[in-house]
Amino acid sequence: MPVIQSNTVIQIIPVIHQMNISKIDLNLLIYLDVLLRECNVTKAADRLNITQPAMSNGLKRLRELLNDPVLVRTSKGMQPTKKALQLKPIVRDLIQTMEKALIAEEDFDYTTSDRVFRIMVSDYAASTLLPPLLDELRKQAPEVTLDIITPSDTTFHEIENGQVDLAINAFSTEPASFHQQVLWKDEFCVLVRSDNLNSKKLSFDDYFNSKHVWVSKTGYGVSIGMTHEDVQKLRWVDGAISKLGKQRNIRVFTRSYHVALQLAQEQDLMATIPYRAALLKKHHSELSILPVPFDVEPLELKMIWSPLLHQDGGHRWLRRLIKITAKNIPDS
Fold this sequence. Notes:
Layout: H1 6-17, H2 26-38, H3 41-48, H4 52-66, E1 71-74, E2 77-80, H5 82-102, E3 116-121, H6 123-128, H7 130-140, E4 145-149, H8 156-160, E5 166-169, E6 179-186, E7 188-193, H9 204-209, E8 211-215, H10 236-243, E9 249-254, H11 257-263, E10 269-274, H12 275-278, E11 287-291, E12 299-305, H13 313-328
Parallel strand pairs: 3-4, 3-5, 8-9, 8-10
Antiparallel strand pairs: 1-2, 5-12, 6-12, 7-10, 7-11
């Protein structure tokens, strides 16, 4: 395995000595390397496939760590400081040496690998994405294992530290430092019994005169009970209803789409859910899928992961497989 050249170590020791060692991480060195090559926060963020706020936050941390502006705005655009120019070749040499040392570990033969990937998925993603993904794994990587956990089983901190490989959910917010990929956007619909009076056409008044099943993701950490007042603070369906100055007659609160799909078969209940989830019941003769009689913001299903795992060969393979699988799932 290649080692870092001794002259590189000698040059970087005085710099490190001035830093708080506990604050140094590989991501900051990578951010510094790209920022000094691009001298542009937006271009650096694009190069690393992260958001501009994430890169701006990285630059802020670097400035605090180095006690130096790193990049300053001039008439010629952003330019590196004297200290940053001294660090530029040292950091570049360090990154290249580490890349060479790790390149052998990036090879990943999915046809024979028995690797276990730990993935946090929402109930919605588990219902719609996991079955076809497992079909692909059986064909392509029969020995690969998935350890599926729920949002309440983990935290953003564990994902950021790489203890969880991926998180797939319709996130309201996620840390800017995470890498992310939108897998699809999904409209909402109403699932109701076919013999319900509203099953052929659902008017605005009919919707609010009916009884409803509420279903949503649990979020992170141990969830608490829901009340009618709580739902007005949420996004998507409840956010749209709140803007209308209305409130649903909710008779059942659940965090499970499978439960909502089952309860929609009750004659006096309806469920407002993402269309791809409702499609799981499209061949059910007792159920009808109807448009929501008001505008609702589409749901975005995202895949997020830690920068610590971004270059891992097996991780890159799994992300590509999930992306391709999601693209090929029928949406009607």
